[in-house]
Every structure is written in structure tokens, then in C-alpha cells.
Design brief:
alpha+beta, three-stranded antiparallel β-sheet, signal, single chain, disordered N terminus, 16% helix, 11 helices, Di-haem_cyt_c_peroxidsae, heme
């Protein structure tokens, strides 16, 4: 067959391949056929997802859009603390391999379910060990009815910012003006705040472009409204458009195939991930884009980080031995990437104490836009206000290039029967076959080739703009009461009696531990044991055991660990290369004692322990970075 693949630059590549080899032609663990997948027994090769059909209404230059997206994703200046970037939780195979101060005690989801008692390690800033996993320990890992040795509602996730409240962002200043306040969710050691930890395990952003909906609970919708994750359900979401130089109009926008853009707007305001409490996206735009009386320079993209001259996207703009890009400001990238009506205006948007915007027309001073005007903290330029639109579409463009489609499995599926070892082929047979045929029925939920039923292709024609059941259901790749944790710990997209979580994709799963939405399993062996014993760690009825032999379990793990690992991801080769990054890795000390940083803005905070992730160019590294806990 002839397969055409759309590539990042917009061109089309055709490849001659042979029919899918066995055992793919004999799959017995089949999901229900859908309009997007009418013959699931004959899975296609991985193909690209379409861009928003109306992207040209907003974007002039996709190369500039890609540069803007990669720079913003990795830029430490994005966080309120001038440290935390999007990449801080997605730097290792698109996920997070840190293991110190990575426990959330059960806070941050529903207020009624909040738990601030650390069971794993006994406190915040704990250094996890392999012995802590799995969180649900059984006397016999193959028997879910055996004696429970230990259990917890704690979550292994990713550390973010300290608890603080925003005073204001300051134009040209990476660190927001904030007040440090006592952490209400338990992230303290002896009265000293430590960095907070998100309430769910961080999934990989690699291949996220194939998901119909984003986040574990699917709350980031496929239709981007330009403002927040809620898509078409948020009728009040408006951006501004310059219909004339002195006239702004509030408009609703709708971009399809854009769940990643919807996702981006969430973490930027999360008081667990990147933001002080109370920050808005226009305030982030003001910090990056505003020139206050021409006396304060705009923040240089990646000003705290080196960019490799061989970076596959940003290399030509690298300052080499100096941090940051040659591009002096994000303004320049936005002006080049986006059409003028979304950023060029002399009018100002003023926000009152209730958050209601009012348009203030400015006198004609000969300037192209509002630059040069000294603005109060409650007034914003058009560029500031539409930062949610710019950052969402730009980071989506970058993340859409992070496609891992060169695994040994892909080579095997394309006709190279030697691409998988004999053990990995046996593991693939376990993956694609049902129990009657000696398999694990993995393909039902983790459907080939995306390895998830929650993909755009699989869910073609399934509505996702309405958050009510059954639209968030197995039809969309979300499965109820799957046995990981009780619904009362975390309902996901469901209720306290019926949890619902998205089936994650599995490519590069050998690199992205810990696993599950609660991060409660550290190895693929633990994951396979969980399914083999019939799930049911939540105390529910579970499912019939798979009764796989030890040999078949080992084969399945070998396929998952090796057969689905793209060497470009492992070795950080393009498009998976990146700028330098400094990530918080807990604090000097432990769960019993930390050293205060000496901050003077309120509640004491702990001294940061930062780890460098060096800049990597398109050719990658020769030695892979260690996985979670070195496992």
C-alpha cells in the first residue's frame, strides 16, 4: 500500500511499504469499529493529525509560530518564580523523571476530598525509593485478593511553584511580584514552604497531538476558544480583534483540532504548576510583551538558558555562548507569526476590580501601536490580552512536531520483520491477542497505531464539546472504575462513585515512569502484574485475571519497553532536542528539615536545589539520561 504522511513543514511524503506482517493481521483483541477506524483488525501506519482548518485566519508565518512555541514551552521566565516552565514537568521523553519532592498527599482535586497527610515518606520533600512502589502492595502481586501490605491515596507527580499570591507582573521582569503565604495543602517542612506538587502524574507531551482531548480527565477540549481549556462550552470566552487602529472588538474564536492549544492555557495559571494564585494570561503577556515608557526592555526569549547552535528549530537564532536568542523580544516573533488584527492596536483594555474589560481609545501619537505608553497594572495592550491565543497556538505547533513514529514496532509494521526481536514479537502477540488466544487484550484500550482509543482518528465523529456522560466515556477512550484507585480518591472525569480516566498512549512507555494517573507504579512489570491479576486495586470487583505465564509477562514488558521506544526520543535527537533548562529537584535536606531561602515576601520558603538539563542540538546525545529512579 501507499501511505502519505504530512510532515511538520506542511509537505507530503509518500512511502512504499508492504502489508502489515503477522501478528497484526490476526489481531483478536479488537475495539469496536468506529467511523475513524472501520477495520480495527487492519491498523494503518501512524499518520499526522490535521491542523486547525482556519489557522490561516490567525497565522501568517508558521516557521515563526514554531519558533515562538518552542521558545515559550522551554522558557523558565514563563513561571511566576522565573524558574518554572512548561518543560519543567515534561523534559524527559516528554514526561518527568524526578524523584525528590514529587509526592502530593491527595490535595488539589476536589476540596471535599482533600487530604494533606503524606503517607509515602511521611512528609513533603521526601526522596522516593524503588521500595515505595507500587503504592498498592499485595502479599502476592498476582492475586488481588491476597493480603494488602500497604496502600495510599498519595500521588507521585511533578513539583511546581511555591504557594503564593500575585501582586502583579512587572514588564521586563522574569519574577512576578508575589506574597508568599502558608501552604494550605501540606507542602511545608517545619513551617517552611516547599514547592507544591501537582495532583496527577504528568503524562508525556510526545504524540499528544494524536489525543482528541487532553489531560487525564479530558477537560481540555478539541475546539480552542482562544482563552481557556473549556472549548465551545465557554460561551463567554472572548479575545479582541483590531477592526481599526483605534477600535477593538470582542470576538469568539473557534479552532478545531486544537486540544493542545486548549491544554496550554491551563498550566500557565495553575497555582500548583507555574503560577502564583490570581495571575491572568493578559498579565503574563504584559510581563513578556509590554514596554513600559521605553525604559524597561522586553524579556529576551530564553534569557536564562543556552540554546545549542544546532538546535533543530532555534539554532539559527542561538546566541551561542550567551544565553537566550538573538531575537530580542517575543514581540518580534508574535508580529511575524500572527496577523496584525490580533496584535496591532493603539487602544488599551482596562480591567476593573470585577475583571470586566473596557476599551480605552488612545490619541494618535504617531506610534504604530501602544508601545511607549506607561500603563497601569490594570491596563493591557491588545498583544497582552491575546497572549492566551498566541501561546496556545504556538505551543500547539511545537508539540505537534513531537511525533514519535520511528520505533522498532513501526519498522516491523511497515514490513521489516526483523525490526523486533523474537521476544518482542512474542510480547506483541500478547498485546494484540485476547485471553482465549493467550493474550492480554491490551489493544482494546491501547489501540494500534496510536496505542490509545482516545485518539483523534479512533474518535472521529464523536462529540467532545459537551462534558456530560456518555460523551466522556469508552467512546472517547475514557474508561470507568478501572481499578487503580477508588473514585473517592480522584473521580477524574466522573464522580466520587464512578471514576473516569483517559487511556494514555504507550509509545516510549519504557522511558516515562512512574505510571498511571496517580504515578503509583514504578515499573512496567508492576503495571503488567496489575492487569494480570484482574485490576481491582480500588476495592471494586476488578476483572477476570489474565493468567499470563511469567514468560509471557516478560515478553509483553520487552515489547513495551523496547519495541515502542523511538531512539530519537531516547537520545534527544531532532525533533526532541531542546534548550538548556534548570529544574527544581526538591530542596537540600529531607522531609524532616530544610534550609530557608531567606525570602522577604512573607512565609519562609525552602532553598531550591536546581539541576541542569544541558542544551542539546539536533544530533542528540550519545548517553541516554537515566529513567525514574534509574529503573
Amino acid at each position: 500500500m501507499i501511505v502519505s504522511l504530512a510532515i511538520a513543514g506542511g509537505g507530503i511524503v509518500s512511502a512504499q511499504v508492504t502489508p502489515n506482517p503477522a501478528p497484526l493481521n490476526n489481531i483478536t483483541s479488537l475495539p469496536l469499529a468506529t467511523p475513524g477506524d472501520p477495520t480495527p483488525a487492519n491498523p494503518p501506519l501512524l499518520t499526522a493529525v490535521a491542523q486547525p482548518s482556519n489557522l490561516a485566519d490567525f497565522v501568517d508565518d508558521q516557521t515563526a509560530l514554531l519558533k515562538l512555541g518552542k521558545a515559550l514551552f522551554w522558557d523558565m521566565q514563563l513561571g511566576s518564580d522565573g524558574v518554572q516552565s512548561c518543560a519543567s514537568c515534561h523534559f524527559h521523553a516528554g514526561a518527568d523523571n524526578r524523584s525528590k519532592n514529587q509526592i502530593n498527599p491527595g490535595s488539589g482535586l476536589l476540596e471535599s476530598l482533600k487530604d494533606i497527610t503524606f503517607q509515602v515518606g511521611g512528609g513533603a520533600n521526601y526522596q522516593l525509593t524503588a521500595a515505595d512502589f507500587p503504592f498498592h502492595k499485595l502479599a502476592d502481586p498476582n492475586d488481588r485478593t491476597s493480603t494488602i501490605i500497604s496502600d495510599t491515596n498519595d500521588i507521585a507527580s511533578s513539583q511546581g511553584v511555591f504557594n503564593s499570591v500575585l501582586k502583579n507582573t512587572v514588564p521586563g521582569q522574569a519574577v512576578d511580584s508575589t506574597t508568599s503565604e502558608p501552604d494550605p495543602d501540606g507542602f511545608q517542612v517545619n513551617g517552611i514552604n516547599v514547592r507544591r506538587v501537582a495532583p496527577r502524574n504528568s503524562p508525556t507531551v510526545i504524540n499528544a497531538i494524536f489525543n482528541k482531548l487532553q489531560f487525564w480527565d479530558g477537560r481540555a477540549k478539541e475546539t480552542f476558544n482562544g482563552v481557556n481549556p473549556k472549548g465551545a462550552t465557554e460561551l463567554s470566552a472572548k479575545v479582541y480583534k483590531a477592526t481599526k487602529p483605534k477600535e477593538l472588538t470582542a470576538v469568539s474564536v473557534s479552532l478545531n483540532n486544537s486540544s493542545i492549544a486548549s491544554l496550554v492555557t491551563g498550566p500557565l495559571l495553575s497555582e500548583f504548576e507555574t503560577s502564583a494564585d490570581g495571575r491572568t494570561l493578559p498579565q503574563i503577556g504584559a510581563k513578556f510583551l509590554r514596554k513600559k515608557g521605553q525604559k524597561i526592555k522586553s524579556l529576551r526569549p530564553l534569557a536564562k538558558q543556552f540554546v545549542d547552535p544546532q538546535d533543530s528549530v532555534l539554532g539559527s537564532d542561538s546566541r551561542s555562548r550567551q544565553p537566550g536568542l538573538k531575537i530580542a523580544s517575543y514581540d518580534q516573533l508574535i508580529r511575524k507569526a500572527f496577523k496584525k488584527q490580533w496584535w496591532k492596536s493603539k487602544s488599551i483594555i482596562q480591567v476593573d476590580s470585577k475583571g470586566t474589560p473596557t476599551i480605552l481609545a488612545k490619541n494618535d501619537d504617531g506610534n504604530e501601536s501602544e508601545e511607549g505608553q506607561t500603563l497601569p497594572t490594570n491596563q493591557f495592550s491588545l498583544r497582552d490580552w491575546n497572549f492566551s491565543l498566541f501561546s496556545g497556538l504556538a505551543m500547539q505547533k511545537y508539540i505537534s512536531t513531537l511525533v514519535s513514529d520511528k520505533t522498532p514496532f513501526d519498522q516491523f509494521q511497515a514490513g521489516n520483520t526483523n525490526a523486533l526481536t523474537a521476544q518482542e514479537k512474542s510480547g506483541l502477540s500478547v498485546f494484540v491477542n485476547n485471553g482465549v488466544n493467550g493474550g492480554g487484550s491490551c489493544n482494546v484500550c491501547h489501540t494500534i497505531p496510536e496505542f490509545t482509543t482516545a485518539s483523534v482518528r479512533r474518535t472521529a465523529g464523536v462529540a467532545s464539546t459537551d462534558s456530560t456522560d456518555p460523551l466522556i466515556s469508552p467512546t472517547n477512550g475514557f474508561f470507568p472504575n478501572f481499578g487503580v484507585t477508588p473514585a473517592s480518591d480522584d473521580p477524574g472525569a466522573g464522580s466520587t462513585s464512578r471514576s473516569l480516566f483517559k487511556a494514555p498512549a504507550l509509545r516510549n512507555v519504557g522511558l516515562t515512569a512512574p505510571y498511571m494517573h496517580n504515578g503509583g507504579m514504578a515499573t512496567l512489570e508492576q503495571v503488567v502484574d496489575f492487569y494480570n491479576r484482574g485490576r481491582g486495586d480500588d476495592g471494586g470487583p476488578g476483572a477476570p485475571p489474565l493468567n499470563l505465564t511469567d514468560a509471557k509477562k516478560a515478553d509483553l514488558v520487552a515489547f513495551l519497553r523496547n519495541g515502542l521506544t523511538d531512539q530519537r526520543v531516547l537520545l534527544e535527537k531532532a525533533p526532541f532536542d531542546h534548550p538548556q533548562l534548570f529544574i527544581p529537584n526538591g530542596h537540600p535536606g529531607n522531609q524532616s528539615s530544610v534550609t530557608p531561602s531567606g525570602n522577604s515576601n512573607g512565609t519562609p520558603t525552602a532553598t531550591d536545589q536546581l539541576v541542569e538539563i544541558p542544551a542539546v542540538g539536533r544530533n542528540g546525545v550519545t548517553t541516554p539520561k537515566p529513567n525514574f529512579l534509574g529503573l
